[in-house]
DNA sequence: TCAATAAGTCAGAAAAATATGACCACCAAC
DNA sequence: GTTGGTGGTCATATTTTTCTGACTTATTGA
């Protein structure tokens, strides 16, 4: 599911939007990586086994559109792009931590 | 994504499992419905516009396997089956409420 | 000027998720 | 003993997601 909006169900279930934001093969992984350090395209490609350009590109764009990552052009040494967690992204961290606790309880 | 386990990524990201549990077209909707009342197969089929037997059947089974719903055979009047939220399912409610708040904040 | 790194895009193929329509088994009422 | 409700399964088709491989633009270093 790569975030194709469905206005009907979106409005019925508010958490639906968030779940969609994180649906897809790579997005949870990307979010989690972004918690520890800013992301870079080519590094991700090497670090995530089985990942491909196209899918990463789309996933990054959608996380950006969802206001969870922000794209930053670093004008230094080897001029590159970094994806950082936004405030909204940071605010999600404690919520995911609660989910992890629930998982461990059983 | 119909919950095909990927032991590698599951272990890297614990929230991944939960996200998978709720991935798919109908699962968020089913969970949300189950919060207000037990679910019944044929009622869902009528109530959810566009839903089909096959997909509902699979979604219900997977939510059951994930320990979020439990199947109960009601041996009364018109002998039927009800899907109820388990304890684990109930514990997820406040977490989803937090997600809704985050959505509304921006 | 040539090659390398960085960050992509694009068209088409493959794989996975979802939908369709036919069918099945059980029970109860008529 | 046939009809109707309940809760499904199965094989197949369609749709959506994901992957592959070729190509692109910009910057940098030799």
UniProtKB/TrEMBL annotation, chains A, B:
Keywords: DNA-binding, Transcription, Transcription regulation. Residues 13-106 form the HTH hxlR-type domain. The keyword Transcription regulation applies. The keyword DNA-binding applies. PROSITE patterns: HTH_HXLR (PS51118). GO terms for molecular function: DNA binding. SUPFAM superfamilies: Winged helix' DNA-binding domain (SSF46785). This is Helix-turn-helix transcriptional regulator.
């Amino acid at each position: 599911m790569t975030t194709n909006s469905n206005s009907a169900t979106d409005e019925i279930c508010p958490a639906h939007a968030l779940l969609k934001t994180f649906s897809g093969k790579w997005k949870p992984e990307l979010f989690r990586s972004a918690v520890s350090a800013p992301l870079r395209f080519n590094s991700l490609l090497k670090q995530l086994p089985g990942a491909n350009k196209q899918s990463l590109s789309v996933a990054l764009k959608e996380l950006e559109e969802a206001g969870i990552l922000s794209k930053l052009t670093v004008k230094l040494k080897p001029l590159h792009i970094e994806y950082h967690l936004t405030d909204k992204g940071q605010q999600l961290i404690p919520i995911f931590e609660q989910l992890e606790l629930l998982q461990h309880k059983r």
